[in-house]
Every structure is written in C-alpha cells, then in structure tokens.
Amino acid sequence: MFGYEFYIDPERCIGCMSCVNACAECETHRGHSMINVDFIDRKNTIATVPMICMHCDDPTCAEVCPADAIKKGEDGVVQSSLKPRCIACSNCVLACPFGVPKMIVDFEQMMKCDMCYDRTSVGKRPMCATVCPSQALAYITAEEAAAQRREKPVNEFQFGNETVRTRVFMMLPPDQERLSLDVADYMWEQSDEIVQAYEY
Amino acid sequence: MAKLPAPVEELTGKYGPHLKFIPPGGWKDQSRTAERLVKTHCCFCGQQCGIKLKVRDNKVIGFDPWEEFPFNRGMLCPKGVKRYMQNEHPDRLLDPLIRTDAGFRTATWDEALDLTVRRIQEVQAKYGPDAIAIYGGASLTTEKAYLLGKLARVALKTRNIDYNGRLCMVSAGVAYKLAFGIDRSPNPWSDIPKAQVVFVTGANIAECAPITTNYIWQCRDNGGKLIVADPRLTPITRNADLYLPVRPGTDLALLLGMLHVIFRDGLAKREFLEQHTTGWEAMEAYARDWNPDKAASISGVPPASIEKAAHMIGEADRAMIMHARGLEHQSKGVENCLAVINIALACGHIGREGAGCLMITGQGNGQGGREHGQKCDQLPGQRSITDPEARRHVAKVWGVDPDELPGPGLSAVEIMEAIHRGEIKALLSICFNPLVSLPEGEYTREALERLEFFGVIDFFLSETAQHADVVLAGSLHEEEEGIVCSAEGRVIHINKAVDPPGNARSDIRIICDIAARLGKGNYFPFVESRQILDELREASRGGVADYYGITYEKIDEQLGVFWPCPDLDHSGTPRLFEGARFYHPDGKAHLQATEFRPGGDPVDEEFPVYLTTGRVVSQYLSGTQTRRIGALVDQYPEPRLEIHPRLAEKYGISDGDWVAVRTRRNEILLRAMVVKTIRPDTVFIPYHWPRERSANRLTHRTLDPRSKIPEYKVSACQLRLEKKGDPLPVMGQSRV
Question: For chain A, what is the radius of gyration of the CA atoms?
Fold first, then answer.
C-alpha cells in the first residue's frame, strides 16, 4: 500500500497477543507466528512490547547469510529466506539486533515477518496491524500518524557504534530523535562521569 | 438423578475439553481457500466485533477482518482471531445423548425429545408448574432468548426462568432503570475519544473488552486524561494519569468521597440538578458524611488522590465514567452503579458527545439477552412482568389470556438454591455452565445431584451438562441467523455461515419441538429466525426497549441500529438523554442516596486476605468454548494466584509455588504468580476453570438484594504454602 508506514507504539500495547495469534493464521507460515510479544518484567510491571521485523535499510540478517537467501524488495520489505537457498544455519537468528528471525524446524527454513505481502499487495493492511485492539501496531500514513499521535516516530537505532535505520517506526516520547540502548550514548563524549540530561 | 453417570476422567476423555490447534483440512494452502466470506460477529464478549468467517464445504476454516464494520474496523482480540476453531471441533456433540448407568449413549431426536417432555410433564404433574426452571444464556441471539421466555410462560407455564446474564450486567441494569428509567449504556463508543477525562472503575478493559482500549487511547491522543480505579494495575493502567488502588468491595466509599468533594468544592452543577433531576438533596446530604479521609480509610485510596479524581471529573466540560463487573459483582452492586450515575449527573456529564456514564456489557448478547423475556421479572421490550398493561400487550401478541401468564420468578442463584432445597425438581438449561460460573461450586454440584430431571441444550458437553439426563445437541453461534445487542446498544445481525453438523439441530428448532410436544405447537410455528424477530418486534413495540423498527435489512444497510427504534422509518437512537430528557414519566433522572454497608464475606483474623476474581484475555466466561481452543489455552494454561511480593513473603511463598487458598466454603490449590501489580492485601484468581482449579468453589452466595448478582469480587481467604515449585515460565511468545 503506497504511502503507508508501520508504527510500533509499546506504550499502547496491552499484551493481549492478538497479533501473535493472527500472524500464526497466515497460509505461508501455517500456525507459526512471526511476532513476539515480550512481557518485560511481569513481576514488576504490566509493560509489554510487540516486535515485528523492523525491516532494516541495511539488513544484518541478509549480510550474514552465507547462502544469500534473504532479499530486500524495492518496497523496503525484507523477505523471509528463499526456501531453495536457505540452509537453516541460524546465522540470521543470532545476528539480528532486534531478535526477529526464527528458524522454523518444521520447514527447515528461516522465516520472519514480511509485512504481509499477500495483503499489502492487494491494498489491505498487514494482519497484525489490522487486528491489534490497542493499535500499538498501526499501519497508517505519515500524515495520519502526525495528526493522530502525539508520540514521535523514530526509525534510527543506535547499537554501540552502529546506527541502524529501519523501514518500521518505533513511537518514542516526543523530542526524542533516536533510540539508543547504551548508557554511553547519553554521556558527554570522552567523559566517564557526567551523564547528559535524559528527559522523557 | 443428576449425579455424574461415569467417572469424570471417562467423561472428559470422551467429550473433552480437547485442544484444537489446526483448522479444518489442516494448514495446507489449497484447503484454506474460502468458498465464501460471511459477514457476522464474534461469538464471545459484549463488544461484538464484526468479523468475516471463511467458509468451505460447510465448515468455518478461518477468519478475515471486517474493516468496514464501524465499531472495531477489523480489530479483534485473540479470542476473536481463534473463535473459528470452535467449529468442526472433535468435542462437538453430533447427536442427542441420553444418560445410562455407565455414561451417555446417543439417541434419536424423537427418543430424546419424547423423554425430555415426558419427564417434564411428570414433574409438573406431581409438583406443580413452577417445579421446573429454565436457565438461558446471554450468548444466545435475542430471538432465542425471546423464544425461551415464551416457552417458559406459554408452554411450561413456569414463573422460574432466568439466565446467566444474572451473573453479569444486572446491577447496572437495575441502577440505570432506577435512575434513568431505561437499561442501556447511554452513549455510543464513538463518544469516548471526545471526552476530556475518562474514569474507568471496576473494569479490566484491556482483557475483558479489548477493543475499547483503542477508544481510550484515542481519547488520550486527543489530550484526554485517564483515571483508573482497580485493586490491580490492569494493562490499561499503564497510561493512567491517576491510579486509584481501591480495596476490593469498597468502591462505594471511594465514589462517595469523590461526590463529597464535588459538592464541597462547588463543582456540582446545581442548576442542572434542580432542572433535570429529583432526589439529589438526599444524595448530597448522605455524601456530606464522606470526607476524603473517611473514604480513604475504608477504600485504601489516598485522600489526595480522591480529591484529585473529583476535581479532574468535576472541572471537565466532558467526562465519561466507564464501569463493569468490578462495581457490579458486590452485594451493593446497585449502589455502586448508582454512585457512578450520581457523580456523572452532579457534574452534568450526560446526554452529550463525550459526556456520560457507560456500563460495559460483558457477555455477547448481555444487553439484548435481558431485554426480551428470559429474565425472571421481565416481558419483551424491557417490560415489567408485574405491570398489568405490559401483560395485556404481550399476552395479546402471544394470543393467550393475560391472567394465564405467570408472575415474577426466582433469579439464577435463587433457582439453584430452590433446587438445593428440593423445591424445584427439574431444570432445562441452555448456554449456561453453572457448575463453573455460579458461586460456591460444591453447593451447585449438590443441587444438580438432587434434580429429578435435568435436560441440557448445548453444542459441547460442559461440566454442568455432564450431570444431565438428556443432552440435546444444539447449534453454534455461526449456525443460526439472529440479532444481538452490543455493549453500545447497537443491534447487529448475526449471519448464518454453516449448517449444524451431523445430527445436531438449530436451537430454535429444538425449542419449538419441545413446545410442540407439550401440545403448544400452535404458539411456536417458527421455521426461521426472521419469523421470531417479526413477533418480537410486535411484542417489544411501545416498550422501553422498542425494536419495532429494526429489521435484518436495516441493520445490514446501517451496519447496526441503536434501540429504541419505534418505527420502520426511524434510524435508531445512538445517544440517549440528549437535552437531559430521561425515560421516567416526569422526564427527570431520579437520583438516590447510596448507603454504604459491609459485604457478605468479611475479612477477619482467621481469613485475613481479600480474594477477588475475574477474567484473562485469552479465555471467556466458564471456558466451555475457549478451553477447547489450543492457542488460547497455551496463552494462559491454568489459573494462577496473583499475589504481591510483600504478602507472599509473609507466607514464604515464591513465584511458582503451590498455594492452598481457603475460604469459609472450600479450598483450592494453585500456583502463585508473584507480581507487584496487585494490592498487598488482596489476591486474584481468574475463574474460567472447573473442579479443583475453580475459583468459584471459593466464592460465596451473597446477593445484591435488588439485582440478585453474586458478590464474586470480594471474599475473605487464608493462604498456606503447600509445596515449593519452579518459577512460572515467562509470559508471552517464546523467542526460541
């Protein structure tokens, strides 16, 4: 669907697993879900995060594939492995910074979210974003996202020295440009002591 | 004799629940291509999401989102996604069953129906007409609910008919009737995003009404504030601007404290109250005693939070208060709901876009199922069964003498108590699993064992149906056409997707066949649902719940019709009380003081911990359907005891340990789930499971005196570490 973007907003997620169940219904992966819903720390919080494939501009999974089985389409969607090429080595599973690809033993093949090509190619939204009751997974235009949501869509992630840009956006609190997972990225450069003000 | 005809293991081995993981024909591509898509609705909760069922070879093989349906626009919870798995299920009853000395045997329809009617007639001849009771259900279409009411009052002439909705909305129903003269949620859900403040009290929206979540998030996107009152941090609390950790059973104290502040600080709209309401003086006078300190001492909510909540609601131009079972499942459930209404009206939040109080119906047809005649005190159209004019109208539609219509009967729990006392000797039940869903499960089992005759209409052999003498194999939601009314008050069209399999029959045919064998066939000439709807429209005409103008065609054209809809050219009534016109003859809302009183199972030294019960997102009610769907069971396989680490430490309990939970009724053994998301004086157990894991073995039969709803939400319990266990697995989808 032209002009539509995929947004993940963990703040909206209620952990119902509707996305996981709906994804598993797809004809191509037959009972296996390509989505994870993580219960972050159930003892201390109700926080949950849904994760689909982020569809990186420069996909690490494809880079590390020894069989050249993972392709990115012109639409920016990174596909599941090509069955004739995939050797089920799990390199991609280990390499993905977001922990997305899965080696499906039944199929002897890595499979992952391909953003429901069967649906988007005929003008439908991906299944998970269609059913999601909280719209934590949303497939809408950038204009709609700007008009309806107050969070900031971000698609740049910092892993150490590596900047990963993705097709899928993660909603962050307003004013945050990128999501980094390393404390060092919030410190004054070359300083061990002073931590930059980090405001939500 | 309704004792189990065979050991439990043998019955469950044969009739389930078995888990189904794979669609009919398997996952292979070719067998999953639908011949047709049927637009209908989910069979589960009161949200009644639109869904398209994929049909092939008279089987439901999958689903597709129905994005045009305005309420959910394609959104579905996991139960909706997997609902189709109940079709073509290995546990499905394909023939009538008759009890033998060693289980059940299949029977022909003539044999099963003849036996049913003969036994009913014997009981009635010996003990009188009221010795048989009928149990209905709120998952039935409105046509079936109507037909059951007529079966009871015209064919069986018993006054004892009630339904499992008695365990769900009735406290709100009574309160709204008292205050407004009508029992319906006043606003369409599209109003929620327009509110400036939403107060959710006693409603686990994310798990029990998941689609409503997005309406609340939209409100928040628009700058709205969210207040949540609950003993647990339920998933929507993650974004609450104010969280009120109310102690189980003390919601009324919290609400009275808020009302106190609203009057004390001049936030009440006195002009509105004077013009459009009666009774507010007494309400204000009673609230004067409930300053925030007193309210806090009872409810456990800090006084400052009570003040803040009252000010947020009182200062807003548009606020909505949403409430569900948390308020209703108490022996003062009606008072709790009245207190919500009092707050809304005191602040003038009613009858406008983004302003109102909303009861969130829990069951699929919880709303429609109580409007047209399976409730013990009502005739079709929300008419009172004691109102002579109402009796005349309905008797005329039915072609009977009004004096022959029975009077009001016993409610659901009272029926079980009358069975236990030996006063009611026979029971005909459809769409109800009281052994799991009624309080004090052992008492229910004893009662069932005392029945002289127990007939059941159902599609699976539920735990209750295992006690039956005759089981009539009925139909699933997708096997009959009809209407239901959603939480919004929107009447929608359930389309038939497939025929009942094997020798199973449509519920409507079964009910009409019973009536015919009772010699009343001339009152039940129905071959299809449409004929019943036409009669129901006439029977409801002129009543409060007026459906006269509602047809299947109009529903399809408008994607639902909000009742009242008194004429064929009327498009329905999405929002009630516009211009502050209420449904009492004087046009005013009748407010009442809501007196605080203690609950029926008080906490004391021996039973020092509050026990509250509820639902999880992947299971539905007594689990008759959802405990047979593999993916939903995997998501939450067994009931767990939610307990705060501070309380757990006191008993030496760690995550995953086996804990004995004992109340004044009974004891069950569960694994502990140690979480900081619950009050440290309270434990929570979801109730969807039977027997040794059944939360309702622990609950008590104290009823609200007016609504007759049981007090599920607050019991007193003691805890004992039984044995150590491994920590529970991490929730959610495994990454491996």
Answer: 17
| Residue B122 CB neighbours (<10 A) | 14
Q: Is B492 helix (H, G, I), strand (E, B) or coil?
A: strand
* Tens-place pLDDT, residues B40-49: 999 999 999 9
Among B297, B320, B295, residue whose Cα is nearest residue B307: B295
Residue of A nearest to B735 (CA): A36
Cβ neighbours, 10 Å, residue B569 = 7
User: What is the token pair recorded at B636?
Assistant: 């939450």
> Is A1-52+116-141 assigned to CATH 3.90.550.10?
no
Q: What CATH number has the domain spanning A56-112? A: 3.30.70.20
Give pTM, 2 decimals.
0.96
What's the pLDDT at A27?
81
The beta-carbon neighbor of B674 closest among A12, A43, A131 is A43
Domains plus CATH for chain B?
Answer: 8-86 (3.30.200.210), 170-359 (3.40.228.10), 609-723 (2.40.40.20)
Taking an 8 Å cut-off on Cβ atoms, the answer to whether A27 and B217 are in contact is: no
Q: How far is B732 from chain A (nearest CA, A)?
A: 6
Nearest residue to B729 (alpha-carbon basis) of B627, B616, B637: B637
Query: Cβ A17–B78 below 8 Å, yes or no?
Result: yes
Nearest to B659 by CA among B691, B697, B617, B693: B693
Tokens found for residue B288: 């004067």
CATH 3.30.70.20 placement within chain A: 1-52+116-141, 56-112
What is d(CA B509, CA B474) in angstroms, rounded to the nearest whole number?
9
The tens digit of pLDDT for each residue in B516-558 reads 999 999 999 999 999 999 999 999 999 999 999 999 999 999 9
